[in-house]
Amino acid sequence: MIQHLVDGILVGSFLSLGAIGLTMVMHILRFANFSHAELLSIGAYSALVFDKVFQVLLPFSAAKIGPLSMTWALALSVVLAMAFTGASAMLMDRLVFKRVRARGDELSMVFASFGMALIVRNVIGLVFGLSSQLYSKDIVFAMVISRDPLLLVKPDQIFVFGAALLLMLGLHLLLSRTTFGFALRAVAENPVLAQVHGVNLQRMITAVWVIGGSLGAVAGVFYGLSYQITPVMGRDLVLPIFAATIVGGLGSVYGAVFGGFLVGIASNLALVILPSGYSPSVPFLMILAVLVLRPYGLFGEARP
Q: Which of 38, 66, 74, 224 would disulfide-bridge 234, Cβ 3.0–4.6 Å?
């Protein structure tokens, strides 16, 4: 039980990062972006490419960082993957969502996001193949944290958890202590009034896509460190990420963080009483429960 709880907290750390970007887009642009999980795939695979490039150009960067399976090359690759995925998200908005937003309604945006998800997923499969990929094939042994009860944690998992918390803290400071954060929250609450007060709406929308894509890239790399990356990882993660967003409350960044950890813990604790094949149904059940009992989520606010 304790082992499943700890594993759930560690899974929740990268689910929360993915849910933050999704809830920001849903709150400001008012549509369910089903292609958001594919940004995790873009980030994971772009980091894989940059990692190989760095190892060829800078052989010394192939050295591991302490007890982690992560190399210095991969650490540098994460930064470039964040920039590349943020730019990809912005490009998706400029080429597709901005045009649909100008001509259609919210339902059209949802259908467009489905199409973008299929395009990205199949392009990744075409370029990289359908087999799974690993950042490192070296075996990293788990550390024994406790023997009674037995509790095992890998160094990579501790790093993922700590790095995710730092990123969440950085985003909190950005939103709560800067003029940009105040402007972004103003746009989320009332775009028209924010524009009247001099806020550049298009610039804020671009910033949301870049932030969401960057955090999604980190979440994808962290998922790859914990498991493995595949072209369909976006399809597998879209339901847990949506569950985290809906459970936490649409538009609430802090709710997305809490929802991510809650979904991760619930999915792993379900393995105690359910066969592993039924575990993916837990996020769906959580979505149904929240929509019935509290439609606006745990941290969300009812809208008129």
A: 38
